[in-house]
Amino acid sequence: MQALDAGGARADAAEATLRALDPRALVEALASGWPRLAELGRRRAVELLGPLPGDGAGDLLERAARDPDDGVSDRAVWWLERRPDGARSLASLLGDPVRDDRAALALGRRFPAEAVSRLLAALAQPGGADRPA
């Protein structure tokens, strides 16, 4: 897993090995290794997770969307927007002080029928309508 942080041929080989895993095993491997990955490794992990089906991949992408690195977070939101089940994860980001605007835009673009009710619910929460000056 740490080889994802290395970059170059070593990271490419690690990525190929991980892609060969069953999707569930891949999600489990990435979830267990996530805390030890540096930014480069987390960025590569998001690209491995993006096209995977299932709740586990969606949950880990949601976690990645909260990552302090904008590159990791932006790509995770991008992938969540493309998932059929991404509305739930995007809606969970609406209260995040850093990620909520990006999540709201993605939610409105991809899931317009669900966006209004979820956005109104987020605004109704304490501090939900507050925005920094």
Give the arrangement of secondary structure elements.
Layout: H1 8-19, H2 23-33, H3 39-49, H4 55-65, H5 70-82, H6 86-92, H7 100-110, H8 112-124
Helix pairs in contact: 1-3, 3-5, 4-5, 4-6, 5-6, 5-7, 6-7, 7-8
Task: Tell me what you see in this structure.
- α4 runs antiparallel to α5 and α6 (86-92) runs antiparallel to α7.
- With 133 residues, the chain is mainly alpha-helical.
- The chain is 67% helix and 0% strand.
- The mean pLDDT is 88.
The average pLDDT value, as a whole number, equals: 88
Rounded to an integer in angstroms, the radius of gyration calculated over CA atoms is: 16 Å
Which residue ranges are poorly predicted, with pLDDT under 50 across at least 5 consecutive positions? none
Category by helix and strand content: mainly alpha
Distance between the termini: 41 Å
How many DSSP E strands?
Answer: 0
**Molecular shape:** elongated
Question: Mind summarizing the main beta sheet?
Answer: none
How large is the share of residues in beta strands?
under 5%
> Helix tally?
8
Helix share bin:
55-70%
What is the H/E string?
Answer: HHHHHHHH
Q: What is shown here, in short?
A:
The chain is mostly helical and 133 residues long. It has 8 helices and no strands.
Features:
133 residues; 8 helices; mainly alpha
